[in-house]
Amino acid sequence: MPVPLDWLLAQPALGLRLLAGSSDGVEVEWAHAIELVDPSPWLAGGELILTTGLRMPRSVAEQAAYVDRLAAHGTAGLAFGVGIRWAEVPRGLVDRCSAVGLPLLEVPLPTPFIAITQAVAQRVADDRERGLQRVVRLQQSLTRTTLREGVPGLVRALAKALDAAVVVVDDAGGLVARSSGATALVGLVRSVVTATIHPAKALLLDVPDDPGLELHALAGRAGREGWLAVRGLDRSVPESRIVLNHAISLATLSLDEPTELRDARAELGAAALGLVLDSPGSVPVSSLLTRFGFGAVDELVVLFVDAEGWTSEGGVAAGTAATSPAISAWLEGIPHLAARRHGGLAVAVPSRAAEPAVHAVTTNLTGRLADAVVGVSDPVPAHSAADALAAARRAATAARGVGINVGRARDLALEGVLADPELRLRLGELTRPVLDRLCADPAATEQDLVRTLTAYLDHEGSWERASRALGVHRHTLRNRIAKVEALTGLSLQVPGNRLVLSLALATMDASG
């Protein structure tokens, strides 16, 4: 750690005086006494040369040459001790130092050179001690933040500490967390991570096109958990590297929890959400939610993540992307509950965290499930979570119908109608008998007729799209719809009948 020359000049015990050049911004790596006429072969740059001029030539030209040699080797300055051979600093040195801008200091006779060297050494030691103390404080702060806020909090704190952009992704490139302003970096990191299969033991990836970017592996017990990327790290500051390495360890520990614990937590959250959705009157919902990080007065927003073929063995159900543990990794730092519902995934979050949650889910689904859509409910009280899920499902269906990734219940006209509880109840009373006739027949369960009818209506009577959504052949779909018409006594070719059935399904979703 270099010592500012201004600091040395400001030490009253040394009594140094600047005679030529400027001390502004000059840093001293070390102070060393040397009486050679040509010390340049032994200089590394940054030294403050201490001399009493014992071998200093009398010739002005030779004195100028001496200064030129020091300047050429990047010397920080020349400190000339007076009172031994020279009563005052030679004029030739003063003039040449002024000409080339090399700081020239006068050292009074009472000041021993060892005092200057000791002052520099003590300042270097003090700076290192302060640097280590800063590192320890930062490490403690990063640890506390990680315990409270998980990897997202760690990333924000690390970016601030290093004044750098920071991104953490899982091993498949899914976003875990990013610092403010690092949106563009996410895409680059994802492309590098997914471009090829990296050796399991690779701990650092080079990015030739971006030398300022470092990609560090988060190597867990059973394998690599992901990558931490940092751009803009000041590599000249050793403490920055120590802080970064500590953050890498914290991120690894956060992501590398035992699979059994991760799965158990996801199962517990799924069970809790099941209670909130199915039996809100049988449990103290608010108390239950507070155990999962929700505020006591938080309203909920429910997300419904839907992908065609979701339940097929080769798809998401096999664990490739949107299982509950994976969602939990994407939503780290955001209170949430997730459970498999209706062939998709239901996720409940506090309304205050809805937008970050939607962003995290959609960002991670991009490139993994091209056909995935997310439906988002309006904020509702916790006891109305089932209604919110129904609204989110309708929003997801509407989004798929118009070819967008995110659908919001507030954008659906029907949601405004059904938001009135009295009207919703009355519509349910009027339309429920139609569905009762359908559900009473054993074929309703055997042939999944309610889900078939829902898909058919959601896809506006399109045999192709509805059959693809259900994962069945068009002929199978036609046979099932014919059975629905026979049981309900309503032809689906009549618009009014389709409206009645749509309202019946919409008002029974909360209990279905």
From TrEMBL:
Q: Which PANTHER family match?
A: CARBOHYDRATE DIACID REGULATOR, DNA-BINDING TRANSCRIPTIONAL ACTIVATOR ADER
Query: What domain of life?
Result: Bacteria
Signal sequence: where? none
What is the scientific name of the source organism?
Answer: Intrasporangium oryzae NRRL B-24470
**Domain Purine catabolism PurC-like per the UniProt entry, residue ranges:** 8-123
Domain PucR C-terminal helix-turn-helix as annotated: residue spans: 449-506
Name the chain's protein: PucR family transcriptional regulator
